[in-house]
C-alpha cells in the first residue's frame, strides 16, 4: 500500500513493488493518474488497486484500508508517502496553508498508520514504513511547514514504536529519511518566493530511492538515512547546529529557487490535484544522480561512537606521551 502513489517517489515505489510481485494498492487524489498507473502495472503482469482519496480525511483512509483488505488480502506493508509543501518565508504563509501542509504531510501519515494498525494488530504482523526526510532532523529556510511536519512524523513514529515494543508486538515501524529527489513536487508546489522552486542539491533519481525503500521494507530497521547529504545534514546538526544555521541561512535560500519566475498560468497542488504532471520524474533529471548510499542508523551511530572513541583515545595517548616526555626531561 502506497499513499501519494500517483507521482514521484510514490509512483516509483509502486512500480518497483509490482515488479517484485507484490499486489499494490495505490492511494492519491487524482483518479485519472491512478488509473494510468494501475494500467501500467497490470500491463506488466502485476496486480493493482487504485483508490482516489485525500489522506487528510481520516475516514476515507480507513475506508481505503478496508477496501484493500477485502480486495487484495491482508495488508503486509503500508507506506506513508503523501506530502505537500509551500516554498515561502514563514511570515508569508497563511494559517490555512500551514494547516494544509500539516494535514497532508503529518496527519496523513498518522491516519495511514492508524488505519494500517487496525488490520495488522489482530494478526500481530506487518510493516509500516514512513517516508521521511533529512529535514525531519534539520530545518531549512523557505520550508518551515514541511520541516515541522516531518519533525512531527519522526516523533510520532518513535512514540508508536515504543508502544509496540511494550506490547511485544511483531509489527515493525521504520522511517526512511530522504535527500532531495527529482520529482514533480518542485513543478507543482505552491511558492511565495517569486521564483520557481528547485531541490537543494545534490538531487537523486526517484528509482534509486525506491530501490532503497524496498530494501528497508524487507529489513525494517529502526531508521534509514539515504545519501551522504542526509547523513551530513543530520550529523552536522548534532555537532554544529549553529554553524549549520548560518550556512543554510545563505545556501538554502539560493539552493531552493531557480532563476525563472512562475508563469501566471502556473497551478499548484496544495488544495487540489494538478493535471498533466503526474509522472515519476520532475524537471531535474539531467542533474539527478543514479547512485545512492543507504545507512542504517544503528550501524551509523555505532560507527560515529567508535570513531569518536578512537579519536578521544588518540588525543589522550598523545597528551599522555607529551606529559611523560616533559617529566623525562
Give a short summary of the structure:
The chain is built from 10 helices and 12 strands.
Structure description:
- The protein is an alpha/beta fold and 329 residues long.
- The protein has one domain: Rossmann fold (3-Layer(aba) Sandwich).
- Helices cover 51% and strands 14% of the residues.
- It has ten helices and twelve strands.
- The protein has helices at 8-19, 31-43, 58-72, 95-123, 144-166, 185-188, 206-218, 228-239, 241-254, 297-328; strands at 2-3, 23-28, 47-52, 77-80, 86-87, 127-133, 172-178, 180-181, 190-191, 203-204, 223-226, 294-296.
- It has a five-stranded mixed beta sheet, sandwiched between helices. The chain has a three-stranded parallel beta sheet with strand order 1-2-3, sandwiched between helices.
- Helix 1 (8-19) links the parallel strand 1 (2-3) and strand 2.
- The radius of gyration is 22 Å and the shape is globular.
- Mean pLDDT is 92; it is low at 306-311.
Give the spatial strand order of the biggest sheet: 4-6-7-11-12
How helical, in percent, are the residues?
A: 40-55%
Oligomeric state of the chains present here: single chain
Our measurement of the CA-to-CA distance between the termini, rounded to an integer number of angstroms, reads: 72 Å
* Domain unit count: 1
DSSP strand content: 5-15%
SSE string, helix = H, strand = E? EHEHEHEEHEHEEHEEHEHHEH
CATH topology: the name is: Rossmann fold
SS-derived structural category: alpha/beta
CATH class: Alpha Beta
